[in-house]
Write a structure and sequence with these properties.
The protein is α+β, with helices and mostly antiparallel strands and about 160 residues long. The chain has one domain: Gcn5-related N-acetyltransferase (GNAT) (Aminopeptidase), CATH 3.40.630. About 25% of the residues lie in helices and about 40% in strands. The protein has helices at about 20, 30, 35-40, 95-110, 125-135, and strands at about 1-5, 10, 45-55, 55-65, 80-85, 115-125, 140-145, 150-160. An 8-stranded mixed beta sheet has the order 1-2-3-4-5-6-8-7, covered by helices on one side. β1 and β2 form a beta hairpin. The radius of gyration is 14 Å and the shape is globular.
Length: about 160
């Protein structure tokens, strides 16, 4: 089952997506802030890979977590953590990331109905990502944590 807006949709990862995700590339200035899909793919208990599809083509990817890792970002037991958002470099600049984040609420409601918030960490130097998340309705919670590349801002969005 998928969540759709026009030709853009969010789908739970399946093996049929692997070949397209393996071809993803990111410029170095983006790659330092996220993981390529195959690096983040490890689907297991509490990790839920999601593929951003345009038409029939995978153009992006992220992971939703409902594991113990979420506690590093929020005390809310009804929250999921979003990590590893990326759009394949050749597909960037087309609005796919923003549209995908706008579909996120419906996707979580449809597939993870026990959860009512999504949190994420964004590096203080990653201004484009901060702008994207804010445009999609995420808010800076004021919480901070230290990441591999320095301070991270914790953003959240209500799903209900």
């Amino acid at each position: 089952m998928q969540t759709t807006s026009g030709q853009l949709s969010l789908q739970k990862y399946t093996d049929s997506h692997q070949r397209a995700l393996a071809a993803f590339q990111l410029p170095e200035e983006q790659a330092k802030f996220t993981a390529l899909p195959l690096e983040a793919l490890e689907a297991n208990e509490g990790r839920h890979p999601v593929v951003i599809i345009y038409g029939e083509n995978p153009v992006g990817f992220f992971v939703l977590h409902n594991s113990g890792r979420v506690k590093d970002y929020t005390d809310n037991p009804g929250a999921m953590l979003l990590t590893a958002l990326s759009i394949n470099h050749v597909e960037q600049g087309k609005g796919y990331a923003k549209k995908a984040m706008l579909l996120l609420k419906d996707f979580v409601t449809q597939h993870f109905s026990d959860y009512h918030e999504v949190v994420l960490a964004v590096n203080h130097k990653n201004i484009p990502a901060q702008k994207l998340y804010k445009k999609a309705g995420f808010q800076d919670t004021g919480r901070r944590r230290e990441g591999e590349l320095g301070e991270q801002y914790i953003y959240a969005i209500s799903v209900t």
